[in-house]
Amino acid sequence: MKKVSFAEFGGPDVLRLVDAEEPHAGPGQVRIAVRAAGVNPVDWRIREGQFLQAHPIELPASVGLDAAGVVDEIGAGVDGVEVGDHVFGEGSSTYAEFAVLSAWARMPEGLTFEEAAGYPSVVETALRIIGQVGVRPGQTLLVSGASGGVGSAVLQIARDRGIAVIGTAGAANQDYLRSLGAVATTYGEGWVERVRQLGRVDAALDLAGTGVIRELVELTGDPQRVISIADLGAPEHGVRFSGVAGSMPEALAEAARLIAHGRLHIPVEKSYPLADAAAAHINSRAGHTRGRRVMIV
Fold it and tell me: 124 Cβ partners below 8 Å, 6+ apart?
């Protein structure tokens, strides 16, 4: 089979499309014929070697965590799923023709493989950080860098829970944020004052890592009311960096429920073939995403 791999840490040019042996489902796992794989910032952070101290990686290494596809192999102890089922979930080495998933759920009716591949990690992250920041119904959450995959999920989940959201994004994405129920404003010079004019901020999330931690603490008045998933220097300001995933099965079940009820939709901004993984990483790292980027197989 074909898969994307890298033999050294570095820029996107280290990615290679290589021939590899097919993986097989172990106990508690399923294997899928991959139809699409989600592109997440953690993918290129791992490729760059950013997490080596916390999570040593043996080279050569593969890429990708999220995928959607057709179940074609079921591991021991697994029930409730059959060969031929269309599922989305999380595993490893998902930029590939076949991948093993450790958590999955059936794809909701009407969802394409490309759309489904964009949900797992972003919904888990959104649910986790909304919970960690402690924002409650009736309060206001500020989301910095709100137009990407995680931001799109945060805005819709918050709206579903009765939490008001102020979202910052580029000028081109203002209408998109409003369509998801947020009060939108642009980042850049004067953004703090623009947010202040929109009202009280009870909690804040940094999703883009653009060096705004100090300002988010200023706006909320408490570093404990700020969470970052993108700025590794956040703890220097007393702000929690959230990088440890919670329960993926619960997140997938909640994603499926919200999608089925029409309360969560994350658009796919662009799809790439496996051979263009480097371009996908370049674009992901550049930011300014509206929704998700995915690999197609």
Answer: 90, 245, 246, 247, 248, 251, 252
Whether the predicted model's global pTM rises above the 0.85 cut: yes
Residue 191's CATH number: 3.40.50.720
- The letter for the amino acid at 115 is E
- The answer to whether position 113 is within a domain reads no
For residue 296, give the nearest of 273, 280, 268 by alpha carbon: 273
Q: Per the domain annotation, does 103 fall within a domain?
A: yes
Looking at the structure of the chain, the number of domains it has is 2
- pLDDT tens string, the chain, 297 residues long: the values are 999 999 999 999 999 999 999 999 999 999 999 999 999 989 999 999 988 877 789 999 999 999 999 999 999 999 999 999 999 999 999 999 999 999 999 999 999 999 999 999 999 999 999 999 999 999 999 999 999 999 999 999 999 999 999 999 999 999 999 999 999 999 989 999 999 999 999 999 999 888 999 999 999 999 999 999 999 899 999 999 998 889 999 999 999 999 999 999 999 999 999 999 999 999 998 877 788 999 999
Instruction: Report residue 31: phi and psi, to 5°.
Output: -105, 145
- CA distance linking residue 208 with residue 150, whole number of Å: 10
Cα 170 from Cα 144, distance rounded (Å): 11
Looking at the structure, do residues 143 and 206 belong to the same domain, yes or no? yes
What's the CATH number where 61 sits? 3.90.180.10
Domain of residue 227, residue span = 124-241
163 CB-near residues (< 8 Å, 6+ apart): 130, 135, 136, 137, 138, 139, 140, 141
Q: Tell me whether residue 99 is in a domain.
A: yes
From CA 163, how far away is CA 201, in angstroms rounded? 11
